[in-house]
Amino acid sequence: MKKILFILLPFCLLLSCQHKKSLIVIEGDIAGASNDKITLALITNEGLEPLDSMRMKNGHFRFELKANDKNARERAASPMMYQISLSSFNTLTTMAKGGDHILIHANAENLIENYRVSGGEEAVLMGQLDSALHSFIQPADSLYHLYSNDIYNDSLREAVEQQYLQLVNHHKQYLKQFIRQHPNKMASFVAFFQSYNRRHFFNKQEDKELLRQITHNLKKTYPENPYVQNMQYRLETMDLMEMERNPQNDTD
User: Which residue pairs, CB below 8 angstroms and at least 24 apart, start in 63-66?
Assistant: First the structure.
């Protein structure tokens, strides 16, 4: 009987560890939220997939994602993006994989502004990107208001546009450095596609080789990740379209 117990014990511990790794916890405290409703959704290549919702207790929330089926286990195997929402206009995006316990502290007035996050490396990197974008937005908004108040002043418009382009270039250099420092992190994808007022800092055509390098690095680390697979397909499609436009470049 004792031998059976000794054999079963390691097996049970193994199952326990596997179960723990397949569990994602996203919780936090939102100042000023009281008992408001909060929702959690998975960001897929096709859009948002609602996962859960709850009423907070004095601003506290806790979501637990268990890998109870094959799709959920595959999803938990690599970092995926999750959107936390108080409304359709007040959202925060984080990233997590199986075993992560994400802790978030934010303000209900604007979730993404100056929030703090811990408990997962990719989530922390996402927080750094959001913080850097917020630092860009503040002076950019000031320039926009300055421009709007005197829109017919040509000299002012030229000066504002020049300052704005300097801000854009400075933030783009930050994003390039971020990608160089984190070549194997999923957050580098987010860095490449970061935008402000529908303006992307990188261009998929002009900066295609950088996107290709990010995809190549992540494919080695997370070959089954749906974001990586989708980006690989999109790059291949872009290459085919370019070959069709310029058949003379096809040496074959």
Answer: 63/25, 63/26, 63/27, 64/23, 64/24, 64/25, 65/23, 65/24, 65/25, 65/26, 66/22, 66/23
**Half-sphere exposure (Cβ direction) of 14: Cα atoms closer than 13 Å:** 5
Residue-wise pLDDT for 139-167, tens only, equals 988 887 776 766 666 677 788 888 999 99
Q: What's the pTM value of the predicted model, to 2 decimals?
A: 0.85
From the list 28, 39, 189, 19, the residue with the least C-alpha distance to 102 is 28
In three state form, how does the secondary structure of 17-32 look? HHHHHCEEEEEEEEEC
Q: How many residues does the chain have?
A: 252
DSSP H helical segments within the chain, as ranges? 2-21, 70-76, 121-149, 154-181, 187-192, 208-221, 226-245
